[in-house]
Input
Amino acid sequence: MYRYLFLILGTVMLVGEAQASTASVIWMTITPGARPNGMGEAFVAISDDATASYWNPAGLAYVTPEKNEVTLQHSNWLPQLADDLYFEYLGYARYLEGWGGVGGSITFMSMGEQQETEGGSPEPIGTFYAYGVSATAAAGTEVAPGVSVGLGVKFIYDHLFYEDIGKGSSFAADLGVLYHIPMDDLGLASLGNASIGACLSNLGPNMSYGGQSEGNPLPRTIRAGLAYEPFDTQMTQLQVAVDYSKLLTNVDDGFSDEITENKWGAGAEYWYYDLLGLRAGYIHDTEGASTIQGLTFGAGIRYSGLQFDMAFVPVEESLQGSGKYNKKFSLVVQF
Output
């Protein structure tokens, strides 16, 4: 019996922003949050909101005190291919006095309705729905002045097909560290604030599909970044950041190839009167079969505990004829 599983696998590779096809559940590399996406997907050294459980759980130590924060993000993923591909993210964060911060997230990836055939015939005999979901719980705490560490644990389920060979599951951990450079102690207070962050993501056993785990590694990733805030006044605030990430799955190419197969991004966020935010950045991704590169941009508006953000990120060049950008929308609620 032949099924259109190749369509699913092709979709998975594409929704993963052209990450290396050697990893399974590549949809887990899709970056959540319209705010960080508008900044060139550079956020590991900031991670101060309800997306921290993805970007860097160590950032949960510095989320807004005495408030719950919830983030919901929606994206019609690659509408150039189909109208039933979409990515949903629900994140939570809260600071606990004397402990640090806790948070979590649920990610859902719809890979759409697929057709089933048999006997080599192109005529479909039915349809089935493919999707993936992961759930994460995370915590971050300050272990020394300006230094925090974080841990996230997650369960992953991948439903490519309704038979056991198309159903996979695994679990993983994320480890993060964040260092706020003591500019005051260094006599550099007038220059603003700066931080350094790093995170190891998706450390866990291979996905097991129908009891078979060989050749199904998780998209294990290392990410590091810098962030700099030159000023933060009552009227205006500016943050700039840069991130570098590398997929660690099947790192067996030559050194020169591995050096060139990576992803980096840089961006900035500007707030006016804590009301209107503007963002722009640039990403360069060479970890997939083709390069994704280009400008990102976005905006946000904040009022009375509510914040709405939108972002536009470039897609792979062969898809740009039907729209150059993926659009991401987020709603943040603090209460």
Residues 5-334 form a domain with the Porin fold (CATH 2.40.160.40). The mean pLDDT is 87. Helices lie at 5-15, 34-38, 52-55, 255-260. The CA atoms of residues 276 and 301 lie 5 Å apart.
